[in-house]
TrEMBL record:
Keyword Secreted carried by entry: yes
Domain of life assignment: Eukaryota
Signal peptide location: 1-22
Any single GO BP term: defense response to virus
Database matches in SUPFAM superfamilies: 4-helical cytokines
One term under GO cellular component: extracellular space
Record's protein name: Uncharacterized protein
Length: 189
């Protein structure tokens, strides 16, 4: 009897291990994305009214994110890719020195960067997902605004607003596409 239960336990452990191996490592941890969202939200105030004119040039292509919550793995991959790519591109901007006049809380910005970096490592294999042209068009528009004399602050604010939207929408609409374990999945693979 003892032996049988021992065998059963072993079998269970084995099948759990097998499942863990079978899960693709190309995933993003939902908790980390959520923390990154909160850091980004809390590092500054709401979008300044004085920056509204920048919306003509910077408006996130919301259609890039698959609309409905769905168990479809392709939709999941696309959604995670949009999160990954947006974080990656925004990260390149946020690496620069803050433009004069932008009063973001540095400690929270550093913590955001740290989480962002972690997600970049974790989701590395997402970079191979077929991209959408519309997203690169968006980011070149952002860059154009950032390079314009006097509009950098609003460019940063608009990028932060849009990135918050991306993270929040993805977490809500594609909740099941993220991993929600307490442990970060392995980054290799
Ligand atoms: C980028 O800007 C161009 C010109 O202002 C505009 O036609 C295009 O729709 C913008 N792209 C995105 C994704 O916002
Ligand atoms: C916004 O886009 C228009 C047309 O593409 C351009 O002429 C203008 O300089 C841009 N404004 C900023 C702040 O980049």
């Amino acid at each position: 009897m003892m032996l049988v239960s021992l065998l059963l336990i072993l079998l269970q452990v084995c099948s759990q291990l097998m499942t863990a191996v079978a899960i693709p490592t190309c995933l993003l941890n939902g908790h980390v994305v959520q923390s990154a969202h909160h850091m980004l939200r809390d590092l500054g105030g709401s979008f300044p009214v004085s920056c509204l004119p920048v919306n003509i040039n910077i408006s996130f292509p919301s259609s890039a994110l698959p609309a409905a919550a769905s168990a479809n793995p392709l939709q999941c991959r696309k959604a995670l890719w949009v999160v990954y790519e947006s974080l990656q591109e925004a990260g390149l901007v946020f690496e620069e020195d803050l433009p004069a006049g932008l009063t973001w809380r540095d400690e929270k910005l550093q913590r955001f960067r740290h989480l962002q970096f972690r997600l970049m490592e974790e989701g590395q294999c997402l970079s191979g997902v077929d991209g959408s042209v519309v997203l690169s068009s968006y980011f070149s528009n952002v860059t154009a605004v950032l390079e314009q004399q006097g509009s950098a602050v609003c460019g940063w604010e608009a990028l932060r607003r849009d990135l918050l939207w991306v993270l929040k929408s993805a977490l809500h609409q594609h909740h099941n596409c993220f991993t929600w374990g307490t442990k970060t999945p392995p980054t290799s693979g």
